[in-house]
Amino acid sequence: MGWIVVKRLENCPGCREPTDRELMQVIISNHHTIQVGNTPVMMFSQEIVGRCTICDLRFIAGRLPPEDLIVYYKDGDYTSRPGRPLDLEARAKKSGLFTRSVLQTLKSSDISPVRHLDFGCVQGNLMLAVDWMTVGVEIEPNYLKWAIEHNLEVYDGLDKVPGFFDLITLIEVLEHLDQPLDSLIALNAKLTIGGHIMISVPDLLKGHPSPLSNRHLSAFTPTALENIMKKAGFEKELIYHVDLGMPTLFYVGVKK
Ligand SMILES: [Zn+2]
């Protein structure tokens, strides 16, 4: 087992308030084991997982530097057991439940986009299921390669994506981002006025069994999700709980 000392975030990644003792309730304060490739790595920090008392976000406060996150996520299927090979064909089949749920929600909300961006598109399963113009962003190289081989327009960074969109989706993505508020603000700038954003995250309030496992960096209650979306400039249209094998929270917002 390797070990690294991580640095504690100085500000909450959901609301930017300082993470001093008054504002952050420490949930776990010993250590946290992660998997980098096939190597278990123990991260040491004084305060590892906290809850922001201002915005209600739970997050891993002891962090790898952002440039090392690609290492943290590099082996692709971080939801599978270490050492198990990445099976992209199987993943494509398994993702149907989420894709159907997303499409159903868009239909019942009367959202039919002209230009859609799927941020954190993984291998592009949602993109392959829609018949409108769609662009993806994915940093993980295995997924990116698979998506490009399936003729999808996918970029490895938001800064490389041209143009604006009237629908942006983040399906099980927000909980993996180093700075979710900063990312949402950057995405807001890529959305047209009146454009929609749709989010799904594991629902902590309904008892998601492992809020900060699966390499999640943040965990959301409905309050935490509403707070961060409002702070990023979105107006809520819909928030609801759904069970997709895992307790899941869906949010639809609009840029006014
Ligand atoms: Zn906060």
What does this structure look like?
The chain is of the alpha/beta class. It folds into two domains: 2-72, no CATH class; 88-254, Vaccinia Virus protein VP39 (Rossmann fold, 3-Layer(aba) Sandwich), CATH 3.40.50.150. The protein is built from seven helices and 16 strands. The strands form four sheets. The chain has a seven-stranded mixed beta sheet. The chain has a four-stranded antiparallel beta sheet with strand order 3-6-7-14, with no helix packed on it. The N and C termini lie far apart (50 Å). Mean pLDDT is 83; it is low at 76-82. Residues 12, 14-15, 17, 52, 54-55, 57 line the site of zinc ion (ZN). Zinc ion binds at residues 12, 14-15, 17, 52, 54-55, 57.
| Ligand species | zinc ion
CATH third-level topology of the largest domain: Rossmann fold
- Rounded to the nearest angstrom, the distance between the terminal CA atoms is 50 Å
Q: What is the level-2 CATH architecture name of the largest domain? A: 3-Layer(aba) Sandwich
